[in-house]
Write a structure and sequence with these properties.
The complex is a heterodimer. Chain A is α+β, with helices and mostly antiparallel strands. In chain A, 23% of the residues lie in helices and 24% in strands. Chain A is built from 15 helices and 32 strands. Chain A has a seven-stranded mixed β-sheet. In chain A, helix 5 links the parallel strand 13 and strand 14. Chain A is globular, with a radius of gyration of 27 Å. Chain B is an alpha+beta fold. In chain B, a hairpin with a 2-residue loop joins strand 1 and strand 2. The longest helix of chain B is centred in the C-terminal third of the chain and has 22 residues. Chain B is globular, with a radius of gyration of 16 Å. The chains are: A alpha+beta, B alpha+beta. At the A-B interface, helix 1, helix 3 and helix 14 of A face helix 1, helix 2, helix 3, helix 4 and helix 5 of B. Chain B: This is (2Fe-2S)-binding protein. Chain B: One of its GO terms (molecular function) is oxidoreductase activity, acting on the aldehyde or oxo group of donors. Chain B: Keywords: 2Fe-2S, Iron, Iron-sulfur, Metal-binding, Oxidoreductase.
């Protein structure tokens, strides 16, 4: 079932405008090895930097001996906390800037793996060898290893995350049916297959950074501020990104080190984070725990929900992984209370990983709803439909669009849910226990602003130019489709240039917002370019349309003609030749008038301060989904295999269903890994993540993944974005892990409340 | 370690002589010394498969192979897979058609593995493809589309072979 129709807004006659299943326009480069990722730009005179990590988790470095490293062959420079690099503090995400200097290396150690030095040499091999020669002396103190460390305590309440209405405690005490449980998720990591890193190079006071980036403008700003440069002196280039999932949106200490080293040496520096360092050079998803109590009447109507959540953060930074993010949104409940705490431990500061907050939040509430369904003896799909929220329970605002009922119904139908036998352990095939589970998910629509430049060339081709990025979501392709449709040219006549901070502005590719932001900007700019082209065709003395008497013209399939087809019809290239134009450029942004100035633009492109919350305005806007999962569990060994997944999504209008389906499936697959495999294991003695490699930190492989069916039940949402789409990239993972946990319960009768669901928890 | 060695490789049909340290891996030789960056570095531990190339026609992890180990041997990378006029190999074409990738970073390794997987006779069923393609991690989660692409390419290559016989 797909209710999305291709909208022929322009007259793109090749059927691949917005909504078409066009293959990736950048695909050929990626399948031939021609796509150039950040560490692959060739520079003359290149040098190589390697980080030296701390082997203790807490304490103070008292001495660092770099003599042996400095004497090693090929070594050019060693930087330690003793070196003042003369950097200034950069602004935070919201554009707030503290006074003072910035030191990317410091002697105070707060986590195992914290970089204490960087070694730069002529070759990668020389730098790697020399890095092992740096000797660190420290005074070690006792570390708090993680959320489960008894010394970590209960943490500090996060005031602005406290949500309540009604009388939750009293209502819970009065209900006939209640369930309570504590749900836990471990540290999880992005595991982008392209590790992080950069090449930095200077020309005078101009800095060029080649670095994988989810936000070229925001990261360029950090570099400019660190080095006291005008913003336009920094160019951050990132045409291809080998996976981000939230981890490549911020300039980081190692970027400052590489750029400072390049400046000192007067040579370009390449710094590649090694795979083990990807577990400590930046943070993964924080470990979480949450207690949930649900109370319902006997007919299954929710009466009370109490949620108490906590996540770990670092000793020096604040990361909120809000386990209450989805909790108030999913169901109509008259009495609600949620509180969240932050627990500082000796870790790198955690960060955003696909659907931050929403993901662990859904694991809690959607596991608890399954427990409640079992306690009530009500089918889990029916229980969810029964408690459907007609409006946003927290803000009280109406949903912009919410096809969640449709998702549950269509998903159940396609899955064959009606054939489920309700009792746990009631479906089996020999020694294999079979379980079916369901869970729902959500992700907010975040709105922001974008800017695009459209150029019409004399050869009739169209360029779309923006500093926005494509890390696999399909930005190149959907922006080509958008411009093609608005202008009336075939998609293959459109070239898209992205991933460069010197190009027009864009919001961060995070929060599933970029497609909505940038299709809006490109649509606006391309429509204006079309108007300009038509105006030239009607008014230029050398245009064949000047005497046509028409007051507008039609452009379709790259041909420009009078609307009734009774006048001349020529290609755009021919028109450009006749009117003697080489290039027509039109730049437009989507900023409101009050922000359409230099200060507003700088804010919009380089900070997150203008992002609009899902409830900003008259509506509450979110994407929705329902996952249906079949697992097969070996009764003797407790091994779990996911054997079938059907998921139905409401993400509004889809700009390119072929690429959307890939992203949905990718989210589901990451969710399968989260449910069954992924866990950062911490050595309690040294507070070190011991499985810091891809052989020990397990992510899903091809053999772990069954066929996955995805269904779109969305309708265009005119409030969410210009073209009617809602966010796609993150919602796919939300609800997958609880659907699997619920299926495992159905198969085995065992409720696993802490991820991942490994065999020792089942036998 | 400052000793240097000269390594002779035949890369995508072209003879190359490299003056490098003996500890340089085949992967770094390709990427850092020859500018052939289509072969990707994901882990440098032989755990992700992004660096998969063919040495004498068999799939090999270039990060666990010293360049010197490939002395005198024929190395094929993703850059050498398409035809002389740029016509895509059936595996490449199927990857594009089935959207068997997103970010594209694991893709060259997946494609080199897939070509070998088909040649080895390990693409007989979806189950078999999943198993023999599991040495190549894809974090974007393109696995079902990779299986579809490999199946399609295997059928096409088998048909081509039969037509030639």
């Amino acid at each position: 079932m797909n209710v999305i129709e291709t909208r022929q807004r322009g007259e793109a006659s090749d059927g691949s405008g917005v909504g078409g299943r066009h293959s990736r326009i950048d695909g050929r480069l990626k399948i031939t090895g021609g796509a150039t990722y950040a560490l692959e730009h060739r520079l003359e005179n290149l040098t190589y930097a390697v980080l030296v990590p701390s082997t203790i988790a807490a304490g103070r470095m008292t001495a660092i001996d770099t003599k042996a490293a400095e004497a090693a062959p090929g070594v050019l420079l060693v930087l330690t906390p003793d070196d003042d690099l003369g950097l200034a503090t950069a602004s935070d995400w919201f554009g707030n800037r503290a006074e003072g200097s910035y030191r990317p290396l410091i002697p105070e150690i707060t986590f195992n793996g914290q970089a204490v030095a960087v070694v730069i040499a002529e070759t990668l091999e020389q730098a790697t060898a020399a890095a092992s020669l740096v000797k660190v002396t420290s005074e070690e103190t006792q570390a708090i290893a993680g959320l489960d460390d008894p010394r970590a305590g209960e943490g500090n309440l996060v005031d602005n995350l406290t949500v309540s209405w009604g009388e939750a405690e009293a209502a819970l005490a009065a209900v006939p049916v209640k369930v309570e449980g504590e749900y836990r998720t471990p540290r999880e990591y992005h595991v982008t297959i392209e590790p992080h890193g950069l090449t930095a190079t200077w020309e005078g006071d101009r800095l060029t950074i080649f670095e994988p980036s989810q936000w070229t403008h925001g990261m360029a700003r950090s570099y400019a501020e660190w080095f006291g440069l005008p913003y336009e002196n920094v160019t951050l280039i990132s045409p291809f990104i080998g996976g981000g999932f939230g981890s490549k949106a911020t300039a980081s200490f190692y970027g400052a080190l590489a750029a400072a080293s390049a400046k000192k040496l007067g040579r370009p520096v390449k710094l590649a984070i090694t795979r083990p360092q990807t577990f400590t050079a930046y943070g993964g998803r924080a470990a979480t725990r949450q207690k949930i109590a649900l109370g319902a009447s006997e007919d299954g109507m929710l009466q009370a929900l109490i949620h108490r959540g906590a996540n770990e953060t670092s000793m020096v930074g604040t990361w909120v992984e809000n386990t209450g993010a989805a909790t108030p949104l999913l169901y109509a409940v008259p009495n609600f209370s949620s509180e969240n705490r932050l627990v500082p431990v000796n870790t790198v500061t955690p960060g955003a990983l696909r659907a931050p907050g929403k993901n662990p939040s859904a694991f809690g509430i959607e596991s608890a709803m399954d427990e409640l369904a079992h306690a009530l003896g009500i089918d889990p799909v029916e229980l969810r439909l029964k408690n459907h929220a007609e409006r946003d329970p927290q803000s009280g605002k109406p949903w912009s669009t919410r096809q969640l009922r449709e998702a549950l119904t269509a998903g159940a139908e396609a899955f064959g849910w009606s054939r489920r036998s309700p009792e746990p352990r009631s479906m089996r095939d020999g020694h294999t226990l079979i379980g079916w589970g369901v869970a729902i998910g959500t992700f907010p629509v975040i709105r922001a602003y974008g800017e695009a430049l459209i150029a019409i060339r004399k050869d009739g081709k169209v360029e779309v130019i923006s500093g926005a990025i494509d890390m696999g979501q399909g930005t190149y392709t959907i922006l080509a489709q958008t411009a093609a449709e608005a202008l009336g040219v075939p998609v293959d006549q459109v070239e898209v240039r992205l991933g460069d901070s010197s190009l027009p502005g864009a919001a961060v590719a995070g929060g599933s917002m970029l497609a909505g932001v940038m299709t809006g900007a490109v649509h606006k700019a391309a429509s204006a370019a079309r108007e300009e082209l038509i105006a030239l065709a009607l008014n230029d003395p050398n245009s064949p349309f000047r005497e046509s008497g028409a007051n507008t013209l039609a452009i379709a399939n790259g041909q420009i003609a009078t609307p009734r087809g009774d006048g001349p019809a020529i290609s755009i290239a021919e028109l450009m030749a006749r009117i003697g134009r080489d290039r027509i450029e039109v730049k437009r942004d989507t900023l409101p008038e009050a922000l359409a100035n230099d200060v507003g633009r700088m804010k919009a492109w380089t900070t997150m301060s203008l992002m609009r919350a899902p409830t900003d305005g008259d509506y509450s806007m979110h994407s929705w989904c329902a996952h249906f999962v079949e697992v097969k569990v070996d009764e003797d060994f407790g091994t779990v295999r996911v054997s079938r997944v059907v998921s139905a999504f409401d993400c509004g209008r889809l700009y390119n269903p072929k690429l959307v389906e890939s992203q949905w499936k990718g989210g589901i697959i990451m969710g399968i890994g989260q449910a069954l495999l992924e866990e950062g294991l911490i050595d309690p003695r040294r507070a070190r993540v011991v499985n810091n490699n891809l052989g020990d930190y397990l992510v899903a492989t091809n053999a772990d993944i069954p066929d996955i069916e995805v269904i779109s039940v969305g309708v265009p949402d005119p409030h969410a974005s210009v073209l009617g789409g809602k966010g796609v990239g993150e919602v796919g993972i939300v609800g997958v892990a609880p659907a699997i946990a619920n299926a495992v319960f159905h198969a085995t009768g065992k409720r696993v409340r802490d991820l991942p669901i490994t065999l020792e928890k089942l036998i | 370690m400052t000793d240097r060695t000269t390594v002779h490789l035949e890369i995508n049909g072209r003879a190359e002589a490299l003056d490098i340290e003996p500890r340089v891996t085949l992967l770094d030789a390709l990427r850092e010394h020859l500018g052939l960056t289509g072969t990707k570095k994901g882990c440098a531990h032989g755990q992700c498969g992004a660096c998969t190339v063919h040495v004498d026609g068999e799939r090999v992890l270039a990060c666990l192979t010293l360049a010197a180990q490939a002395e005198g041997r024929a190395v094929t990378t993703i850059e050498g897979l398409a035809g002389p006029n740029g016509e895509l190999h059936p595996v490449q074409a199927a990857f594009l058609e089935y959207d068997a990738f997103q970010c594209g970073y694991c893709t060259p390794g997946q494609i080199m593995s897939a070509v070998a997987c088909i040649r080895e006779g390990h693409a007989g069923s979806d189950e078999e493809i999943r198993e023999y393609m599991s040495g190549n991690l894809c974090r974007c989660g393109a696995y079902p589309h990779i299986v579809a692409a490999v199946r399609q390419a295997a059928e096409e290559l088998t048909a081509q072979k039969q037509a030639a016989e």
